[in-house]
Write a structure and sequence with these properties.
With about 260 residues, the protein is mostly beta strands. It has one domain: Beta-galactosidase, Chain A, domain 5 (Distorted Sandwich), CATH 2.70.98.10. The chain contains 1 helix and 21 strands.
């Protein structure tokens, strides 16, 4: 047996698998502008820093819920219910998000996953002996980031290719921050052991954005399915015009899910 999920060692990164809500990535100048008013919010939103309420728990499923508070309304002008369900079935974990708009009007938001996995999961095998595989994809591309503030430079893209679809994990892979893939490129991603057999696989069929990130030198790598992404550098528009923003009318519920298989 071995530990799969990162242990949140503060020496490297003190989180396990935060949910990113109501933004993914950063806001330009940390400013959210909506209907003429400006709010301030840190990277990845506030859900990950708040306590959720336990709604139900069974032998193989647990459901948590979070609503707006007086504090969140100072950062984000919408009322909402965020429900997160984790379901265990054999070697699979299903993560489900349901976001309901409780606002009297239209609501805008982004949401994303940020689970970190131990690579290597055990022993002293060098991380650079492991691989990534993105289903049957051999040709991908990721956008660049302004490393001073984490905003996107989508006009600058980098090809990411492998003739056999096996992508090595290299020492300097994350020197310029996360690899962010747009346009629904990633439907499935696996970590492979040095012998190229799978360690774990994430299935994320409908996600328009996906990121792979590591704090350089840390013994973990994050696989991040997203509905939304960081602001474009210099974006000063209304929150409703943000790249990747999701829209809900009053009373509507947004549903998304992804799964992780341990091989």
């Amino acid at each position: 047996n071995y530990e799969v999920l990162w242990t949140a060692d503060n020496k490297y990164w003190g989180r396990h698998a935060p949910v990113l809500f109501p933004i993914v990535g950063g806001l330009y100048k940390k400013e959210l502008r909506y209907k003429g008013k400006t709010y301030h919010m840190n990277q990845h939103g506030f859900a990950r820093d708040n306590d959720f309420t336990l709604i139900s728990q069974t032998e193989n499923q647990i459901i948590h819920e979070f609503h707006q508070t007086d504090e969140t309304k100072q950062l984000y002008p919408f009322d909402f219910t965020l429900k997160i369900t984790h379901t265990l079935k054999g070697n699979d974990v299903m993560i489900t998000w349901d976001v309901t708009n409780d606002t009297d009007g239209t609501m805008y938001f982004s949401i994303g996953g940020h689970p970190a996995f131990n690579v290597p999961p055990m022993g002293d095998t060098p991380q650079t002996d492991f691989y990534l595989r993105f289903g049957d994809k051999k040709q991908l591309e990721y956008i660049s980031l302004d490393t001073s503030d984490g905003t996107a430079l989508p006009q600058i893209t980098t090809p990411y290719t492998s003739p056999d679809g096996i992508f090595p994990i290299t020492e300097h892979m994350f020197d310029n921050d996360a690899l962010i893939f747009e346009h629904n490129q990633i439907h499935e991603v696996s970590f492979l052991f040095p012998d190229r057999t799978p360690y774990l696989t994430m299935h994320c069929q409908d996600f328009p954005y996906f990121a792979v990130w590591q704090k350089p030198g840390a013994p973990f790598i994050c696989l991040e399915p997203w509905y939304g992404r960081t602001d474009n550098s210099g974006f000063m528009g209304d929150f409703s015009e943000k790249t990747g923003i999701q829209k809900l009318e009053k009373g509507q519920t947004f549903h998304a899910e992804y799964s992780i298989t341990i091989h």
